[in-house]
């Protein structure tokens, strides 16, 4: 498991919602959410708010499908939630995701909106392989939201929200 010293003391990891297949000549970066993806992003955002989940900062990949997923979060969250869009989250490594999280030393709760397989491997780095497989045995679904809290013994998956 990876050690990140709080803050943040709560990390939200959100995989972008389901995207359309690329059209001929379209860049992967420019793929939009499908209609099912839009609906799933809105459902997960509403469920998160209903559970009282309120990240102070949302950091999203600049890929279109992540920005659209982050927009669903923006519409559901309080106006005080800050949003940043970071190119480095697209086509990144687990180390980059973890570095971005650990560099957030003024916010107590941070959400990353990113891509698989890196969002899943970031969760695994935080909570360990056994906890990951126990919580999501079929893998990290699109529009899935992991809620990870810091404890004295390390990071623990507190909740997993899906549509």
Automatic annotation (TrEMBL):
Keyword Hydrolase: yes
Pfam families, sorted: His_Phos_1
One GO MF term attached to the UniProt entry: hydrolase activity
EC number: 3.1.3.-
Keywords noted in UniProt: Hydrolase
Name of the protein this chain belongs to: Phosphohistidine phosphatase
Native species: Rhizobium paranaense
């Amino acid at each position: 498991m990876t050690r990140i010293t709080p803050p943040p003391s709560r990390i939200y990891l959100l995989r972008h919602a389901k995207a359309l297949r690329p059209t001929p000549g379209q860049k992967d970066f420019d793929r939009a959410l499908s209609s099912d993806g839009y609906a799933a992003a809105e459902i997960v955002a509403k469920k998160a708010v209903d559970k009282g989940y309120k990240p102070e900062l949302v950091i999203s990949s600049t890929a279109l499908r992540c920005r659209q997923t982050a927009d669903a979060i923006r519409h559901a969250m309080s106006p005080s939630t800050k949003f940043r869009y970071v190119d480095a989250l697209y086509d990144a490594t687990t180390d980059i995701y973890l570095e971005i999280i650990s560099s957030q030393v003024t916010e107590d709760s941070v959400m990353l909106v990113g891509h698989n397989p890196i969002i899943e491997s970031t969760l695994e780095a935080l909570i360990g392989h056994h906890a990951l497989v126990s919580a999501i045995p079929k893998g990290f679904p699109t529009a899935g939201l992991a809620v990870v809290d810091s404890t004295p013994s390390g990071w623990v998956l507190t909740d997993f929200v899906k549509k």
